[in-house]
Amino acid sequence: MFENISLEVANHIGVLTINRPKQLNALNKLTIQEANSALKELATDQSVGVVIITGVGDKAFVAGADIKEFADFSIAEGGALAQQGQALLFDLVAHFPKPIIAAVNGFALGGGLELAMSAHIRIASSNAKMGLPEVSLGVIPGYGGTQRLAELVGKGKANELIFTAGMISADEAYRCGLVNSVVEQDELMDTAKKMASKILRNSPMAIRSAIKAVNAGYTSGVNGYEVEIEEFAKCFGTPEFKEGTTAFLEKRKANFRE
Ligand code: DAK
Q: Is residue 163 a contact partner of residue 150, using CB atoms and an 8 Å limit?
């Protein structure tokens, strides 16, 4: 059904794998469109509670936007595509109603790191290398990288990484807060799935509200505290709140997924 991605759902976890190994999983237009369709499917699939995004193979998560594709863009095409791409994939990931974990299994460069940074959580394999090399190609990050890198690692470190176009190791990425944890490559998917299973024990509605509230604090013109209050209040009207509190009082585990 898809050419450049694959999608598997098992145990309430959707795994979306970017699958262009010959191009180190570089993102071209078709890949972005397919990832958009797959994510929309996963958003409405009631059996799915958490999504993991990764790249096929053991060399690359995503080595960037496809350089062959954007090499001859004009100013107008670049602007239009940045906007479309952000809406189709990167903002969709960032505001996805279910947690998205990026399992960064190798190079995550340019658009690839931007994809990982759009996810809610990042786990990297120890061989992963990350960076935003756009200025070495005469452009700047166009899929939210200038904003999200500064949010995650602070402005000074983000400036250093962007201006030098350098790559950092998984350990350095961990030290500066770019990834949540680092594990050996053969443990990466298991680690991501274990984290997903932990998340799956909790209320999907409350998690959805938490995603909205956390994101609100990073959205210009939106007051995160106000959004938190609104989302907090909404929780009291949900059956999941009833189940969570009743389960506690009855000294049993809450069951949010029946
Ligand atoms: N695009 C297209 N092909 C790529 C690619 C990419 N980003 N990265 C690698 N490949 C291809 C290589 O061309 C090579 O293909 P063949 O020559 O075999 O046909 C194959 O993958 C294997 O790569 P290498 O032979 O280079 O492998 P190495 O192990 O020697 O090196 C590397 C691995 C990851 C260090 C190297 O491949 C590399 O430096 N890749 C490029 C990294 C990079 O600069 N990425 C792009 C960053 S800029 C836009 C919005 C956003 C963006 C652009 C436009 N608009 C809205 C318009 C974002 C731009 C970026 O992401």
A: no
pLDDT at position 81: 81
The answer to whether the predicted template modeling score (pTM) of the entire model surpasses 0.90 is yes
Name the residue among 154, 113, 94 with its Cα closest to residue 27.
113
- Cβ of 137 closer than 6 Å to ligand 1, yes or no, is yes
Separation CA 193–CA 60 (nearest Å)? 19
Name the CATH superfamily for 5-200. Answer: 2-enoyl-CoA Hydratase; Chain A, domain 1 (3.90.226.10)
Q: How far apart are CA 11 and CA 32, in angstroms?
A: 26
Looking at the CA of residue 110, tell me the nearest atom of ligand 1.
61
Distance of CA 24 to the CA centre of its chain: 18
Active-site residues: which are they? 114, 134
